[in-house]
Amino acid sequence: MEVKMAETRFYLPTEIVAGAGCFEGLGNAVRRLGRRALLVGSPGRQALLERAAALLASAGVEAALFAGVRGEPTLEVVEAARERARASRAEVMVGIGGGSAIDVAKAAAGLCREPGAVAEYHAGRPLSGTRGLPLVAVPTTAGTGAEVTKNAVLIDPGRGVKESIRDDSWFPALALLDPALTLSLPPEVTASTGADALCQAIEAFVSIGAGPVSDPLAADAIRRIGRSLERAVAHGDDLAARSDMLYGSLLAGMAMTNARLGAVHGLAHPLGARYSIAHGTLCGLLLPYVMRYNADYAADKYAQVAALLGVAEGNTPPAEAAQRAVERVRALLARVGIPARLAPLGVREADLPAIVAEALPQSSLKHNPRPMAAEDVREVLVMAL
Question: For residue 109, what pLDDT is reported?
């Protein structure tokens, strides 16, 4: 009997260096890519950016700083970072911080040699094919997994749109993951970014784009985050828990950049463009509702999620195990302080028609295991309201 194997594609050109203390090797790592670097981060990470600049200087690399990333990444901030890179004649970009800082660095690096305004590419203008600057990504949260993705998620406040620019050439050249850099994260940031990582792992695992290469990565991410999120929030100085979370975020990023995501991210993007709600908080809030909506269509996969989270055995009926997974995720996120409803965060029922319309074209929605029409999107939003 002939057995046909479904076609699958997995692409990840990023070199990954991970381990406590590996940040100290930043200078030599950057020197392999260029002799002038722009360090991109937030004002709250000024001291870390200056430490990074010292490491680069000791390796003979000239460093300029851009500490203008505040909150969600906007087109204006990317434009400013790109101009700073051009003015400093940067040969390599280094993004240090959470997903916003890395996405700003990624977009500024990728568009540095493009002639048009950043807004033009966000609105759909094709890239010219001119290769941008190499990027070194140093995550300080766990996290978005942006250190191993080819897209930058940006907000255009003028259009009220949150969308990605992506290209295979935008993968970071190097991801440097030092869990010691995450020890100072406050509990609420640990919870929000950890919820995003868990969501990405689960969505990648049940996506219609999932496959035999991405599944083990997503599964290990679910296992690690499930066992360590609560500990990392309550005991931020626990290096083992922080390491688990950082590796979990990395693995989720590797899985989702190839398997893609689902309805949670399809809904979170238009909500995030409209309201001042942290992306990870939105993902964590929406995840149990979307899992419940999907449960009958992906019972076998959610049953595996339940087993990875320690709430089901091999002989548990899939439908029952899937419901256990939903409840386990809901309870875990509640315990780390993720809110359960949208309305207290300012989302109004009157806004739902516009949010539904903005969610439907989202590419993430197309990879959800259960198809979603407008009425289905509204149903999930009403449940979460």
Answer: 98
